[in-house]
């Protein structure tokens, strides 16, 4: 199986969520669906750009080796191994999110307390685990591409936050700047 | 050693006049060091001061508005609005059923950025006949709450001052995350002030004091808050939360029937991060239980609390 497409899909979904997190806590209005959507699309755009880096890294690795077939197989195996913990993580997040939005407030609190809150904190650990998995199944080249991909994914939130939201909001005290 | 919240120490307001008082940074740092809180001391030591060592009030205001804006995210994610409306809706139903004449007015004590009041206004959860007022001693937070409400055209208002000195009487006093700021006799005094007012009830939500609360607060503030002050005070708040028995004792004031909704032992701590202590005029208890329906089994008086306290 070529893991490139599911990895890209997961990376882009994660980037959209990263955009949301970069914005969250910077706008105290009650109705802000449009601002949330804008933040998610900013995350998506930044994520799409950053994910080109591991793609280019993989291409660079393939172009620089003599035995491309073998290296491609190693990258595929490493990518599949990289995908496994990420898929489990994504499934847990999806389950928690569904519970959060569908269930009444008490159960949704449980989904938040047990799921979404801690899951945000452990993102770097999941990426680290994915990298180790890639190393185990695909060797050092897979680890290289996986590390670059993981770093790209983890960089989306701070970059979006710094670019668009770090200086917000504090309107009255900061000269009536409005949330973007 | 006492747990101190930085936000309590760096914003000091004269409770009588509402005037902002100057705060010396060195004195705050010293208090935190003496309480063993070196991390808190480091956070305060980094705040800007004037040449006299007094904390820059504009910088402190900016910080407080920023931290409260971040804090609102937790209220949104934990669906605090719905949680409150779940009890406040039946409470106002009971008040209407009791034949109360005159306007219905909810006053949020220590409203901060007024998330609850603005959420209630935006959703109309309590009905159009309930006037929504937020009150806070912090002028910067009240200004920002007012600006946010006007920005969205919400039918609510915010007042800078003491919630118990308003010209118009409250029907119900509410608060979220305020009770743990009152220590010792001040807690009972807080409830007595409401009992002495014409208000028919109060409903104050605060962090449920469980062993899990500080851990949960650490995880959540670490995951969701950016500023170290917010992370620091979030955990300290959980450590300072009053247990059920303390709240019930303090709320047992003349003319008020104290009640606790979802006390420890009747609620899953993972599902109930905040729970309210209520006080109602005695004639309102039955209508309230009726309006709550099956949920009234979660509402207990002091006589039922024995054995469930921490």
UniProtKB/TrEMBL annotation, chain A:
The chain crosses the membrane at residues 6-24, 44-63, 83-103, 110-136, 142-160. Keywords: Membrane, Transmembrane, Transmembrane helix. The keyword Transmembrane applies. It comes from the Bacteria. This is Integral membrane protein. It comes from Streptomyces violascens. The lineage of its organism: Bacteria, Bacillati, Actinomycetota, Actinomycetes, Kitasatosporales.
TrEMBL record, chain B:
It holds the Pfam family Methyltransf_25. Transmembrane segments: none annotated. SUPFAM superfamilies: S-adenosyl-L-methionine-dependent methyltransferases (SSF53335). It comes from the Bacteria. CDD domains: AdoMet_MTases. InterPro entries: Methyltransf_25 (IPR041698), SAM-dependent_MTases_sf (IPR029063). Residues 107-193 form the Methyltransferase domain. This is Methyltransferase domain-containing protein. It comes from Streptomyces violascens.
């Amino acid at each position: 199986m070529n893991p490139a497409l599911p990895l890209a899909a997961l990376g882009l979904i994660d980037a959209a969520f990263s955009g949301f997190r970069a914005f969250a806590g910077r706008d105290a209005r009650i109705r802000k669906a449009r601002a949330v959507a804008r933040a998610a699309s900013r995350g998506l755009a930044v994520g799409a750009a950053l994910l080109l880096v591991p793609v280019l890294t993989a291409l660079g690795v393939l172009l620089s080796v003599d035995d491309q077939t073998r290296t491609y197989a190693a990258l595929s195996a490493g990518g599949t191994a990289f995908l496994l913990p990420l898929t489990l993580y994504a499934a847990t997040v999806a389950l928690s999110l569904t519970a959060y939005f569908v269930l009444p407030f008490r159960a949704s609190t449980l989904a938040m307390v047990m799921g979404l809150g801690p899951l945000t904190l452990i993102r770097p650990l999941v990426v680290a685990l994915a990298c180790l998995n890639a190393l185990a199944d695909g060797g050092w080249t897979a680890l290289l591409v996986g590390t670059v991909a993981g770093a790209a994914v983890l960089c989306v939130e701070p970059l979006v936050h710094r670019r668009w939201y770090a200086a917000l909001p504090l309107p009255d005290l900061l000269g009536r700047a409005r949330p973007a | 050693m006492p747990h101190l919240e930085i936000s309590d120490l760096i914003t000091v307001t004269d409770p009588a006049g509402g005037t902002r008082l100057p705060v010396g940074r060195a004195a705050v740092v010293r208090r935190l060091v003496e309480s063993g809180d070196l991390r808190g001391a480091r956070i305060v030591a980094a705040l800007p001061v004037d040449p006299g060592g007094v904390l820059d009030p504009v910088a402190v205001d900016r910080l407080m508005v920023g931290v409260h804006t971040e804090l609102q995210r937790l209220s949104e994610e934990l669906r605090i609005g719905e949680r409150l409306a779940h009890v406040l809706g039946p409470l106002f139903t009971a008040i209407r059923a009791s034949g109360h004449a005159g306007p219905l007015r909810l006053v949020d004590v220590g409203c901060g950025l007024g998330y609850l009041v603005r959420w209630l206004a935006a959703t109309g959860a309590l009905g159009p006949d309930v006037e929504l007022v937020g009150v806070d001693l912090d002028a910067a937070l009240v200004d920002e709450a007012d600006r946010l409400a006007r920005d969205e055209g919400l039918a609510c208002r915010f007042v800078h001052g003491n919630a118990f000195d308003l010209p118009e009487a409250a029907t119900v006093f509410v608060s979220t995350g305020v009770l743990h700021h009152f220590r010792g006799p001040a807690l009972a005094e807080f409830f007595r002030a409401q009992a002495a007012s014409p208000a028919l009830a109060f409903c104050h939500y605060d962090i449920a004091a469980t062993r899990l609360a500080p851990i949960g607060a650490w995880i959540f503030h670490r995951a969701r808050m950016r500023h170290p002050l917010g992370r620091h005070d979030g955990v300290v708040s959980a450590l300072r939360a009053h247990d059920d028995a303390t709240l019930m004792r303090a709320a047992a004031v003349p003319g008020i029937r104290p009640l606790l909704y979802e006390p420890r032992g009747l609620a899953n701590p993972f599902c109930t991060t905040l729970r309210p202590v209520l006080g109602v005029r005695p004639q309102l208890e039955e209508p309230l239980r009726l309006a709550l329906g099956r949920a009234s089994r979660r509402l207990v008086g002091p006589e039922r609390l024995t054995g469930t306290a921490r």
